[in-house]
Design a protein that fits this description.
Blueprint: H1 2-24, E1 31-35, H2 44-58, E2 62-66, H3 73-80, E3 88-93, H4 95-98, H5 100-103, E4 116-124, E5 126-131, H6 139-148, E6 154-157, H7 163-175, E7 180-183, H8 187-195, E8 201-205, H9 206-214, E9 218-223, E10 252-257, H10 263-277, H11 280-288, E11 291-293, H12 298-319
Parallel strand pairs: 1-2, 1-3, 6-7, 6-8
Antiparallel strand pairs: 3-10, 4-10, 4-11, 5-8, 5-9
Helix pairs in contact: 2-10, 2-11
């Protein structure tokens, strides 16, 4: 019995030593970076810059795999079931883990256990845009008139249950206004509708509005956040423009892995991703998209998820929105 136990212990130690060696040698094969959205979208240049940066730092191929459909649930479920070996990673927005659990009665994954946080990557900067010849010169003017004319002004968004549309619902509650919501399939069409004067205003990511603003087809009235956008230093924040006391959840994106990833592997990936995020190449891409780089620890990312879950959950439950 002792000989059997000794042999088992030796075999176990050998297996552990092999596992540690393999961890030290990571990565020894190509890494898959999953994206829940189609190629050519606003996330595409961000993901591909991260993939290129990681490839150089890890000296291993990192390729982007688009797994679209199901409002990001298909990609999220895929990650939830993937091996926690570091060879399958997921570029994601806040939505699958903090919004969809309240929008769907039943999901194909457990949102609290379907991932391992690795690192935040960036923040999508958002704001209010109006047609270039709009009579509204300030955000206060626009909301003052909305109060006087309930149900007569309109705004577009990227969708009823998308971040920008839900944020606008939060703003309308806070300002006690009734502005008609015209949802579109994505920020691009929503912004185009505002530029074409089909709606009075749009609340969207500034990157989607950038070309129209630079082309004098739209104007920015205000930006969300505590600081002015460095790309548009003349545009006030919402608080400076008269809408103070409204807390808007940060629209972040980051990288997670499958559940159960070893801490040593998570820490290694976190350090490498942070190095990419802080590189001039990545900063240039996000500046072009009018976004802000983010970095930090896995714990920072988990805190962002927990904070968003409380904020979005309270709002979605209050509005009573369901997608099934």
């Amino acid at each position: 019995m002792r000989r059997v136990l000794a042999a088992f212990t030796a075999a176990l130690c050998a297996l552990m030593a092999t596992s540690i060696a393999r961890a030290d040698e990571y990565p020894s094969k190509p890494i898959r970076l999953v994206l829940a959205y189609p190629a050519g979208g606003s996330a595409d240049p961000i993901v591909r810059t991260i993939a290129d940066g990681l490839s150089k730092r890890l000296k291993q191929a990192v390729f982007v795999e688009n797994r679209t459909g199901g409002n990001a649930t298909i990609a999220t479920q895929y990650i939830a079931n993937a091996a926690p070996d570091g060879y399958t990673l997921y570029f994601t927005y806040t939505t699958p883990y903090t919004m969809l659990p309240f929008l769907y009665r039943k999901l194909s994954y457990d949102p609290k256990r379907a991932y391992t946080p690795i690192s935040l990557v960036g923040e999508q900067l958002v704001g209010f845009g109006v047609p270039a010849d709009s009579k509204f010169r300030t955000l206060k003017d626009m909301f003052d008139e909305a109060k006087l004319r309930p149900g007569e002004l309109s705004h577009s968004s990227s969708g009823t249950a998308q971040i920008h549309g839900l944020t606008m619902e939060q703003i309308k509650i806070a300002t006690a206004t009734n502005i008609v919501h015209v949802p579109y399939q994505g920020s691009g069409p929503a912004v185009q509708a505002a530029a074409a004067k089909q709606v009075d205003m749009v609340f969207a990511d500034i990157g989607a509005m950038n070309g129209f603003v630079r082309g004098n087809r739209m104007r920015l009235l205000a930006v969300a956040g505590q600081k002015r956008n460095p790309n548009y230093p003349e545009v006030p924040t919402m608080a400076e423009a008269g809408l103070s006391g409204i807390e808007i959840p940060m629209v972040w994106h980051g990288i997670v892995g499958p559940p159960g990833m070893p801490k040593a592997l998570v820490d290694k990936l976190n350090a490498e991703i942070n190095a990419v995020v802080r590189s001039p190449e990545f900063e240039k891409v996000l500046t072009t998209l009018v976004q802000r780089p983010l970095s930090g620890t896995p714990e920072d990312m988990q805190l962002a998820i927990d904070t968003d879950e409380r904020a979005w959950g309270a709002l979605i439950n209050r509005l009573g929105i369901r997608l099934d």
